[in-house]
Amino acid sequence: MPVELVRDVAATLRGRDLAAVAAGLTYFAGLGVVPWLLLSVWGAALISSPETVAVHLADLRLLVPPEMGARSVYDGLVRAGLELGPWGALVTILPATFYGEGLRRACLRLSPRRDRFTGWRARLGLLPLVLAVPVLALGVFAAAPLMAQLARIGGFGGTLGQVVVAFHVSFVAIGVVIAWGFRVVAPGGPGWMATLAGALGTSAVISGFLQGFLLFLAIPIDVGIPFGGLRVVGATVAIGLWLFVLHVLLLTGWAATDALDRRLRGRPGDDETDGPVTARPTTEPPDHDGPTPDDPRPSPAAVAVGAGR
C-alpha cells in the first residue's frame, strides 16, 4: 500500500505547478499568520491571566535566537497580543480567516472538485479554531519554563532536550490544527482515519521544519545584504521563503491524506460529485461511415458481395 499511495500522490501532483500553488497559499498566509499569533496570545491570556502568559512568553523568549534581531519582533508581537482587547480580537478575526480560503483554493488547484462558495465555506469552516487555538497555544506556553531551563543548561544535553520538548508540544498543537484544516476546511472531507494519519504525519514534518527555522535564525548573517543593507526587506523575504517551503510540505501532506482516504474507501479514481473532476467519455458518433458494432445494418462491402452472387 505505501507504494500505491506514493503513486497516487505523484499522480495528484503531476501536471500541477506545486510551487505556484504553494506561493499562492503563502500570500494568504501573509494575511493571516500574524492575526493568528495575536489571537493565540490574547486568547491564552483570557483563559488564564495576562500575567501568567507574560511569564511563560518571557521564558519562551530565550529560545528565540538574537542574531537576526528576531527578539525585538517577538517582544512587539507579545505586547500587541496582550493588549489586543475584545474589539481588537474581533477585527483581527477577519484577516485570520483568509488563511482558510487560501488553503481550500490551493487544494482545489491540486485536485479539482466541484465546489461552490469556496471562499466563504473555507473561512467559516476555519472559525472554530478561534476558540481552539488559544487553548493549544496555552499548552505550548506552559512548557516554556522547562524549555527555558534546558536552554540555560546549554551544552549538547540541554540543547537536545530543548529540541525534543519543543518538537513534541508543537507536534500536538500543529497536528490538531492541521487535522481540522484537512477534514473541514480543505475540499473532499476525508474520513477521520485518513485525516488523523495524514495530519499527524504532516505535523511531524512541519514541527521538525520549525526547529530548522529557529536554527536558521541563529545564523549570524545580515539578511539585508542582498537588498542594499535593508534588513527589514531581507527579513521579510526570508520569512516569506520559509513560509513558502512550509506550504509545499503542507500541500504535499494534504495530497497524501486525500490519496489515502480514496484508498481506504476503495475508490482510488473517485469521480463522484464530491470527488475529483475527471474527463467524461464523449457521446459523439464515430468519425467514419461504416457501421458500428451495434449497428444491425449490413456494411456496403457485404451488399456488393451479395449483388455479385
Brief write-up:
By secondary structure, the chain is mainly α.
How is the secondary structure organized here?
Blueprint: H1 2-13, H2 18-47, H3 50-60, H4 70-82, H5 85-96, H6 98-110, H7 118-126, H8 129-142, H9 144-153, H10 155-185, H11 192-217, H12 231-264, H13 300-308
Helix pairs in contact: 1-12, 2-3, 2-4, 2-5, 2-6, 2-8, 2-12, 3-9, 6-7, 7-10, 8-10, 9-10, 10-11, 11-12
Task: Please provide a written account of the structure.
This protein has one domain. It has 309 residues and is an all-alpha fold. It contains 13 helices and no strands.
Beta-strand content bin: under 5%
Instruction: Point out poorly predicted stretches.
Output: 271-295, 301-305
Q: State the helicity in percent bands.
A: over 70%
* SSE ordering: HHHHHHHHHHHHH
Average pLDDT rating: 84
Secondary structural class: mainly alpha
| Number of separate helices | 13
As a whole number of angstroms, the C-alpha radius of gyration is 26 Å
Identify the overall geometry: globular
Number of E strands: 0
Q: What's the domain count?
A: 1
Kindly report how far apart the N and C termini lie. 63 Å
Largest sheet: none
Index terms:
mainly alpha; 13 helices; 309 residues; single chain
